[in-house]
Specification:
Layout lengths: L4 H16 L19 E3 L19 E3 L5 E3 L6 E12 L3 E14 L1 E14 L11 E10 L2 E3 L2 E13 L4 E13 L11 E11 L1
Antiparallel strand pairs: 1-9, 2-3, 4-5, 5-9, 6-7, 6-10, 8-9, 10-11
Amino acid sequence: MRFTRAALLLMAATAATACSDTSPVAPKNARSLYDLSGVTITRGNGQVPVHSRSVRPAQPRFICYVGGECLPREKPLADFDYGPDYFGSDNGTTKNVHIAGWSDNYANIDNMILTVHFLSVGGQGPQGCGATPAQFDQETVSGFGSAWGNHYTIYAERYATYNSSATFVWGIDNEHTFDASAGYSVDGYANVGTFYSSGRLCT
């Protein structure tokens, strides 16, 4: 079968069009802002971290709503606390970051469940420290808690180590569920409740 020059050119053009439909290949030196290959992530050594906590105010005997109506609490409140923990340091060569979630049982809590979402994104893009971190790990822990000072605690944590020339946005999103003892509540009414905490750090 003979092909004219015009026919051969048409076949070549068709083949080129088919190739152009494929996705472009990213440059070999391009790295995703979510790439953690240059970061060392560890889970911690099992020791309870000394986390920061706010001073818990005295629990009122009444719940007051907008409009002025105040109703007595049906059940006394159990005593608990929760929150995020995040900090970083830079010695000029290496940056070290700690991110964690914790739940504390002071009194009248039978069980706690803590789910921690660990987030990260590079801060060297156009958004800098305003970049939105994505989850790179998750952990759920539960129990009455391990003794720590005058209370019991559960927690989940990650440590990150990387070169001082790099910048990352680190995030922590936590879900804290508390199960109050019989006759007590987490909010004046319910025996079980879930609370939320979060934090962000750019370094």
